[in-house]
# Entry
Amino acid sequence: MDSDSAAVLATASRVESVDELAELLRHLRRRQARRRGEPPLTYRELAGRTGWSHGSIGGYLTGKIVPPADRFDELVQLLDVAPEELGALADARDRVEEHARADARDRVEEHARTDARDRVEEHARTDGPGPAAQAADPSVPHQLPAAPDAFTGRAAAIARLDAAVNGATEGGTVVVIGTAGVGKTALAVHWAHRVIERFPDGQLYVNLRGFGAGAEVTADEALRAFLTALGVTPDQVPAELDARIGLFRSLLTGRRVLVVLDNAAHAEQVRPLLPGSSGSLALVTSRNQLAGLVATDSAVPVTLDLLTAGETRRLFATRIGAARVEAESAAVDAIAATCARLPLALVIVAARAAAHPDLPLGVLAHELRTERVLHDAGVRPVFDWSYQRLSAPAATLFRRLSLAPGPDVGRDAAAALLGEVHGEPAGAWRALAELTHASLLTEHAPGRFVAHDLLRAYAAELSGTLDDPADRDAATVRLLEHSLHTAHTAALLLDPHRTPLPGLPAAAAPGTEAQALAWFAVEHHTLLAAVREAAATGHDGHAWRLAWTLVDHLDRRGHWPDLLAAQRVALASARRAGDVAGEAVSAHQLGRACIRMGDYDAATTHLELALDRYGHVGDDAGRARVHGNLGFIADRQARPRDAIGHLLRSLDLLRATGDQAGQGSALANLGWLYAASGEHREALDHCHQALELQQRIGDRTGEAYSWDSIGFIHHQLGEHEPAVECYRQALELWREIGDRYGESETQTHLGDLHRAAGADAEARACWLAALAILEDLGHPDADQVRARVA
# Structure
């Protein structure tokens, strides 16, 4: 064994942290380069040879991500490690993973304890419920839907599920497979509640929407929701899928959590959501076989058949009473045959029988037989029969719910569809209650209603056949108006300095910034779908305006691909409508989205279009903001004089329009650029003007930028302590606001300051903090910071 290998083995034996493992990997990369007489392999080259993402490679080599075991083995072999080194390196990786998992759990649990304690204290101050009612650990999620009413039967399937979990001491995966309407979700949720005490560390649930209208829920989206439910704050959820998977599985290690993955379309949608080799269990439902999970991931399949005759009778007995079923057992059997023994159809019939206890079951059976117009048996005649017995308002709402673009609908949106746009939506609420009692809708969360995808498709067919196109369009417009007015109100709560869109009255709710954030979180998918639906149905003005309302929500949360997609739809919509002002706004926001994605050439193209269109409509405030964005790009492209020119034009326009928040931003940016050009006196003057203005009007975001710029200027002047203090002021504000990108910029600058002072350890800590944020956000600036760390 040579001295290099001996040193590697000795180092590997001492590795305890992810940073130490990453340093060891970097040493192996440098050793390989030295032996070959070549430059070290770049992240891009490693990504190309492995097929992994650039971000994953960077995460492994900077200590952001613990590499999975298979990837670690492949990576070290790619770095030419000797066979005798492999075992010690694998042991080091496993040791680090165990420490990382323990640390992750400790952080989440500490956050949970702190949060619970804060909430208890807050309730004590406000005479709210006592601490015992409020101190539940928020890192223990309880996401299961309510257990289905009067569930019965399925003894064989339940026994197979019990056997699967009894034989899986280290967790595992079970897949419930069956046709549409056979009751997969009801079985999964019923069984989950039945064994809930076996999973004391929580229950996670997601409807992956693999077969309904609209887009599937991606693994990326589901992991974000799961991590948030496990106590990870939204701004700390990694952007890179590999990092999300790693964090999710780390948090579940040593815990017993039940993960219910409902309505999965394919194995690729499910695999990233599996808990891994922990004590947790994944319960999946699907219409498809998901053979890949069974073959590759050792999933246990449980096939769900149609109900037996005995199970059908028990289902009816639990809903209408055993005596009634026994008295008319032949009618029950006839109903079951008409419904093809599908629970979805049978429950609808049972709901009507329960609502009319004096109606003979034979009459129901006869009515159903006469409804067999399209199919000999199955759900369609039951749907027809149930629909025809609805009140007129409930029937109208049922049809119009098919026009809602999102995965579910709230009470106010339902009222808009029904035409109750003013006052209390009592009629819509009664219609929702009737549809829920008839089992045509489910209230899956308080005030949120969803239909089975077969029922939704049926409603869409009815609407297309029975509703006048003008009525359908009017309902769509009312729903879009409701979404737009509420989203506009919420957007202005997130950024009060934003210029409102003209002609939009304020909605009654939300009323605070916190309520606006919560509303956007609930309506996220629905609003994105509404932008697409508005464009697809010719409501172009609603499309670009809705996209405008989403900007701050998507930007704050780092949903930049969604932001980019929405603004592309917005610009196309404004162009089709011939709306020059809308084209200006949409091109501007699309340019900003491209900046976030690091595509400065595309951003410049869109911003120059916006500048032209703002000029056509005489919007000097818009022109000023675009010049500010173009100045940012010029600065990033090392064109300081061009950047200063854009910002001076921006400042002149902002002063003319009286936009104080914009003036503060322009002054701070000018200060930064003057400092970068060595004009420090001019720089400090502009930044202090900006800071005074921003503090006066309460612009915390602008104030954070100004403190960062002043810190940079003191750094340039060699004034270390004042620079540190300014950067710390900026960091405090960024964290209060929740702006992670701003925090990453200041951490980078603070690291540069420490490096210049010879404090290498402090510099590295700041850069690693910045790099962690940028990689979580998937931001291209990560490459620059990564180069500092390497």
Remarks:
- Residues 402 and 460 are 5 Å apart (CA to CA).
- The longest strand covers residues 172-177.
- The two ends are 28 Å apart (CA to CA).
